[in-house]
Amino acid sequence: MMHRTGLSQRWAAVFLFLSLLCSLFTPALMVKHENFKTCDQSGFCKRNRAYADSASAASSSWRSPYDLDSSSIIFKDGKLSGTIIKTVSTTGEKVRLPLTVNFLESGTARVVVDEEKRQKGDIVLRHESKAKKERYNEAEKWAIVGGLELSKGAAVVSSEAGYTNVKYGPQSSHEAVVRHSPFGIEFKRDGETQVQFNGRGLLNMEHWRAKVEKPEPKEGEEPPPEPEGEDESTWWDESFGGNTDSKPRGPESIGLDISFPGYEHVYGIPEHASSLSLKETRGGDGKYSDPYRLYNADVFEYELNSPMTLYGSIPFMQAHRKDSTVGVLWLNAAETWVDIVKNRHAVNQLSLGTVGAVDTETHWFSESGLLDVFVFLGPHSQNVVESYSALTGFTALPQSFAIAYHQCRWNYVTDTDVIDVDRRMDKHKIPYDVIWLDIEYTDGKKYFTWDPLTFTDPERMHKTLDKRERKLVAIIDPHIKNTPDYSIVDEMKSKDLAVHNKDGNIYEGWCWPGSSHWVDCFSPAAIKWWISLFKYSKFTGTFKNTFIWNDMNEPSVFNGPETTMPKDNLHFGNWEHRDVHNINGLTFHNATYEAMTHRNDDDKKEGPKRPFVLTRSFYSGSQRLGAMWTGDNEAKWDHLKASIPMILNQGISGFPFAGADVGGFFGNPSKELLTRWYQAGAFYPFFRGHAHIDTRRREPYMAGEPYTGIMTQALRLRYSLLPAWYTAFYEASTRGSPIIRPNFYVYPGDEKGFAIDDQFYLANTGLLAKPITEEGKESVDIYIADGESYFDYFDYTVHAGKPGRTATVSAPLERIPLLMQGGHIIPRRDRPRRSSGLMRYDPFTLVVVLGNDGSADGELYLDDGESFDYQEGAYIHRRFAFSNGILSSEDIAVAKGSKTEKYHKSMKDVRVEKIIVVNAPEAWKSKNEASVSEEKDGKSGKKGDATVTFVGKTGGKANWAVVRDPGVRIGNGWKIDFN
Ligand code: NOJ
């Protein structure tokens, strides 16, 4: 006995030692490359690249085998149509490809190429597949919501032999030069080519063909040699990681080269953990060797600086050169890859000097579907993103709580835990608006249920949160547990609302709950059903302050190929998963968004409220439905750094409501890293702390001083600037503009700034931030693009601008490097509160930062922050301007509506309590008063004088002055005269 105990003790000691050793040398987190395809392992990617290689090997003798049949061309009402003929080199077969080019009223052009045989269903599917025969033609149905009106002014201006030229766009400044043989299009603006299709001859539409079964070689015989020509090895079946894709329609990829002559930088095509300015992808120093991939996937422990795919896709790219931006949207929902090559050449000295020395040549290919490309001719990035948003929708204006701080972790383990966190945030005076529940709140991962042991009283929990106007976000994923005691799965099965496998049976795979089925949100009936599940009576334990998080919607399938669904699965309408994969996440997000808009249907008094739904997977158009975050990052400095270009890229790609897990999802951040992450997070449009289930607790109060205090300061900064953030969201919701903006967007003429992606402007507030993303750093150099003066946000230290210089800004741990550019007026609310809801009627502070010319302006948008009443005029929109010594507030609301008056009434007591004038004129030294006048009943009248206190410049800081309580209302017109 003794002996055995001694032995087991010794074993225990050895075990302990080994575990300690393991914990000392925890292997670095790393993506499992073997789970995801490289281009070489993706048949159509390899084929399209090989096609490009043979074209460049043949060089000048290469001729694209696609010709537009001149006799087929018709132009009518802004639309050109015709037939492209592909001549198959090996057989001489002629394949008919219907072409349409739509010239839109907005100045955007759209080129669509289909395949006649598939269009007519004149093909034979293999394996007795039930799949649709057409090329997928419904991406438009999900992604596009407007802007398709055909141009009345577009006209054919010449059709010389072999070319058809169409003028379109504003003042007919755009021109499409359609070359017939070989087919290609050049898009010109003001006579200069900006975008070129098939210039390199890489257009490739893999046409339908029957599989020619080769006779099995007899025993002992060698198989016959493969015939010369195309590589068929990946045409029919393709296997990866133990899964075989049956490919019932054979090869059907599409490819096209799109060149941007004179454009050195391209941006966009999120989501990748890469730089803002995209890299070249054909190998070489500092370049990638694989194309950027767009195939929404749950990439575990994703790596940085990589073209690997991530959770979402926006196939929208902008090309930029000095003072010009153009763009393309590749509307295709299948797996897509994009190669980028930059071609350097000598500048033509005789040219007008606008064309750069670099052409960016891109090559796009998708596995299936239509070739459907939109071309935007700018000339500013704002024009490009606005035209793109007119098509795919503008960012939904969020509820105001949604842009405040969110506290999340996997998981708050009980309802009392939630209440405790809430209490401790208050105790430490840390503002927050939302607490989140990850998957563990459910009863055994059955969504729409509560764990009966740990979440016994959801009502008490919600009520406690509501006391401070706080909200709860609960996760709901698309996999539905396949278990006998679950009514939701029974309903889904009996109504046939789940995704099917290739044989047409309900698809089964593995996710958090184990065996699961996936709701098919492409189906209108499934959407209807999904909406019904969110009724208060059905999803019991949820209330008016419950909102939703959609995760795993790529979809993530633990045992599926590349952690997702088999491509030959079937969705509503028998479209193959292959065709719709990248849209899948959007359809689920859309169903949840719809469900949330219908939540109050039975409560006419309450009326609909703006939904808040966070999604991990996304596509063009997801910006209409909520926010996204960058998924499972790591608690490491380089991940903090990488979050900034990723979020900037989302912003210029029409989906600016973006954030990254503050603190890093995997691992435990040091206190310094966590603190710096809060400071950076305070500038993410979507600001949420989140952590993996295996991590230590890290709510801001856990760190202790000085960290807790510093993080609280960062949170307070966010809260005080909420009026500026909300105004930025309003602009995004009406114009598609990014919320945080990279240098190239703000200074399109400043070539030195085109690749800068570690600092940014907050909308047009003039706030310029560069969060610290390196350990131990105490100062930072901020790049200044113009000659304006910049002022430190906190102490008004002056950094005189000079284009192209850097300002060194001191940034000890407690300091966020943040400058204010002269010439702006920033609206704030400075009273510290526990949540944004409690700030609704708080007074405002206006920070007037005078520019070099002594003037400044800014904007404020305000509404009730939750309902849709703003669409009926219930909002305040003011422009503040300072010039010639007078500060004024002017109404810039575009439309009054039935609810305007009521809203204005509710805000009538909300005042401006403080005006700070930074860079105040020297002459104000002796100024004690400013004269105030305010509108009343449409007339302006003198109100009185307000006291001005002037503080003279010292030690490199600017003069500033403060006006306390000038007595003016935020919704009124007024003037404060400092003369
Ligand atoms: C994956 C998500 O990316 C992560 O944020 C979440 O905590 C886990 N799923 C568990 O739901």
Characterize the structure shown.
The structure is a single chain. The protein has 3 domains: about 45-210 and about 235-390, glycosyl hydrolase (family 31) (Immunoglobulin-like); about 405-735, TIM Barrel; about 745-975, Golgi alpha-mannosidase II (Immunoglobulin-like), CATH 2.60.40. The chain has 16 helices and 51 strands. Residues about 1-10 and about 20-25 have low confidence and may be disordered. The strands form 8 sheets. Strands 6, 7, 8, 9, 10, 11, 14, 16, 19 and 20 form a 10-stranded antiparallel beta sheet that branches. Strands 42-43-47-50-49-48-51-46-45-44 form a 10-stranded mixed beta sheet. Strands 1, 2, 3, 4, 5, 15, 17, 18 and 21 form a 9-stranded antiparallel beta sheet that branches. It starts with a helix and ends with a strand. Helices cover about 20% and strands about 25% of the residues. By secondary structure, the chain is of the alpha+beta class. It is globular. Bound molecules: 1-deoxynojirimycin. 1-deoxynojirimycin binds near residues 410, 475, 551, 631 and 690.
